[in-house]
Amino acid sequence: MTDSAKKSGKLWGGRFSEATAASVEAFTESISYDWRLYHHDIKGSKAHARMLAKQGLITGSEAEAIVQGLTEIEREIENNTFVFRPELEDIHMNIEQALTERIGAAGEKLHTARSRNDQVALDIRLYLRDQGTELDTLLADVQKAFTRQARTCLGAIMPGYTHMQRAQPVLLSHHLLAYVEMFGRDRERMQDCVKRINIMPLGSAALAGTGLPVDREFVARELGFSAVTANSMDTTADRDFALEFLFCLTTIQLHLSRMSEELVLWSSKEFEFIQIGDRYCTGSSIMPQKKNPDIPELIRGKAGRVAGALVALLMTVKGLPLTYNRDLQEDKEQIFDALDTVKASLSITAELLANSKFNTDRMKKACYGGFMTATDIADYLVKKNMPFRKAHGVVGTIVALCQKRDIELEELTLQELQQFSDLVEADIFDVLSVEGSVDSRTSAGGTAGVRVTEALERAEQQLGIA
To answer: Are strands 274-276 and 199-200 parallel, antiparallel or unpaired?
Structure first.
């Protein structure tokens, strides 16, 4: 380290004549949160060292010393015996300084042909790639929880809603499998996002690449990347992959929030559609009778937190000129917090679903009232060659009569129904029952038992549920 660098106390301090102000160190440090990149930083540095040795930029013995020193540092971090130093700013400088103090000049050679700009891009990509795999597992666990409940409740009928008004009867399993589809798309989005994350940035250096004879493809192979980035300026400035990752996290949390809203409603006395296990509820500090659905409420509340992380990073990058700017340091806290939130929400959701019981009798009773088979009468008339718009009007007048008399559709006699259309015959009562309504929905993706059974078996096969 040069005299001026020693005076400034920084690895980059050669051109500085004064030590950095303590207030600046406190304001700019990121080691308090980016320490969690240590494994990926060390993994990337080992691959970089091997490449430097292969290219003759350092000796084989120097590369070996670097790899061994990094292994020791990683072990200490995992054992909580490594001392992180805030004055060294970030995880990259903390590890490099510790390595140099242990192995001497060889450690000072590790940063050859790289910048923190491409180094941090590498670390984040490696980290998010691994996190994508973890998220996929957690999403699959939630899908399995919904699928198992769908199997348990197969055949149970409940009201389907539009505008939070009872609309048409559906199978509860059909409703539950809708969430399996949502989280399946979340998995696909995440997997697709990881494909764009899995591009190797190291070798772009600060912004213009390097004049040293590096082998970027070698490092990519060492680290399991599918390709190397194509433009060094784009590489060091890019956080598109982080934005996309945060969008995926936000969509997951929004799906969890929608589910949670239903669980909150369904567990209320007004609905009584579900009983959440006591272990997954809390009580009131003043009202002894209360059993509160706090877990779904918190999941619902955390949607704003995750969406906020996405918006925060969007605002961070919206006006940044090429290439790297220190603003980009703000990406990590948003990523880490959103990740922790979504992973915790997915994990507790799988537990909660496995410890909940649906009140299927109550659900079926809720299907009576509200003229929920009105559309079935319209379909019945269409099958007898009445134009749908005319059928819609006819059924509307039937409903108006029922409202006036305060009765349900199935309480009308055949003669009363025939007053509205001479197409009505005795078989109309087959579609007036909630069971008949459900069984009639045989279109692909519909709620008929045969279709739901097919969908359930498909989900079980895809998720490996015996």
So the answer is: unpaired
Active site (annotated) includes residue 433: no
| Of 273, 32, 275, 10, nearest in space to 159 by CA | 273
**Cα 387 from Cα 385, distance rounded (Å):** 6
255 is catalytic: no
Per annotation, catalytic residue among 163, 174, 232, 257: 163
Distances, alpha carbon 456 to alpha carbons 274, 369, 448, in Å: 21, 29, 12
* Residue 167, number of CB atoms within 10 A of its CB: 16
**Confidence (pTM):** 0.93
Task: Tell me the HSE value of 438 on the side-chain side, using a 13 A CA sphere.
Answer: 25
> Rounded to an integer, what distance in angstroms lies between the CA atom of residue 323 and that of residue 337?
25
DSSP 409: G
Residues 395 and 452 in one domain: yes
Q: What are phi and psi of 161, to 5 degrees?
A: -120, 145
| Range of the structural domain that residue 241 is part of | 117-365
Domain boundary among 301, 330, 365: 365
Query: pLDDT tens digits, the chain, 466 residues: what are they?
Result: 555 455 556 665 677 778 889 899 989 999 999 999 999 999 999 999 999 999 999 999 999 999 999 999 999 999 999 999 999 999 999 999 999 999 999 999 999 999 999 999 999 999 999 999 999 999 999 999 999 999 999 999 999 999 999 999 999 999 999 999 999 999 999 999 999 999 999 999 999 999 999 999 999 999 999 999 999 999 999 999 999 999 999 999 999 999 999 999 999 999 999 999 999 999 989 998 999 999 999 999 999 999 999 999 999 999 999 999 999 999 999 999 999 999 999 999 999 999 999 999 999 999 988 899 999 999 999 999 999 999 999 999 999 999 999 999 989 999 999 999 999 999 999 888 999 999 999 999 999 999 999 999 999 999 999 8
Burial readout 303-316 (b: 16 or more C-beta within 10 A, e: otherwise): beebbebbebbeeb
Match 């029952």 to its residue by tokens. Answer: 433
Q: Exactly one of 32, 61, 226, 284 is catalytic; name it.
A: 284
CATH number at residue 406: 1.10.40.30
Q: At what angle do helices 38-54 and 216-223 cross, to 10 degrees?
A: 140
Domain count along the chain: 3
List 356's β-bridge partners, or say none: 276
